């Protein structure tokens, strides 16, 4: 993943300064999108992943730095691969749109 000066945090609109920041934001956007697609509330999803709701809020906001074990639990609770959970959010969103169009067509 290449860093670009124009990439900004979607919430604070501040520049993302590291690859770790980009991964955290992508993880958060993917968790939010997949949780909503599964029609899960934050409360229910936090219970399924065995994490606290405040921690889930930080993950979805891109401000948490979860351990690998937590990321694995998130993927398991969402029934997705680690790759799908960690891929850049734009690519994951495009993939979801393509899959949706394929089901409709």
* Percentage of β-strand residues: under 5%
The averaged pLDDT comes out at: 84
The sequence of SSEs as H and E is HHHHHH
Please, how many domains?
Answer: 1
Which residue ranges are poorly predicted, with pLDDT under 50 across at least 5 consecutive positions? 1-5
| Quaternary structure | single chain
Shape: globular
Provide the CATH architecture: Orthogonal Bundle
Classified by CATH, the class is Mainly Alpha
Say how many strands there are: 0
Class from secondary-structure proportions: mainly alpha
Secondary structure elements and pairings:
Layout (H helix, E strand, L loop, with lengths): L18 H19 L4 H8 L3 H9 L6 H11 L3 H5 L2 H16 L1
Protein name: Helix-turn-helix transcriptional regulator
Keywords: DNA-binding
Pfam family, one: HTH_3
Please provide a written account of the structure.
With 105 residues, the chain is mainly α. The protein has a single domain (19-104), classed as 434 Repressor (Amino-terminal Domain) (Orthogonal Bundle). It has six helices and no strands. The longest helix has 19 residues, at 19-37. The radius of gyration is 14 Å and the shape is globular. Mean pLDDT is 84; it is low at 1-5.
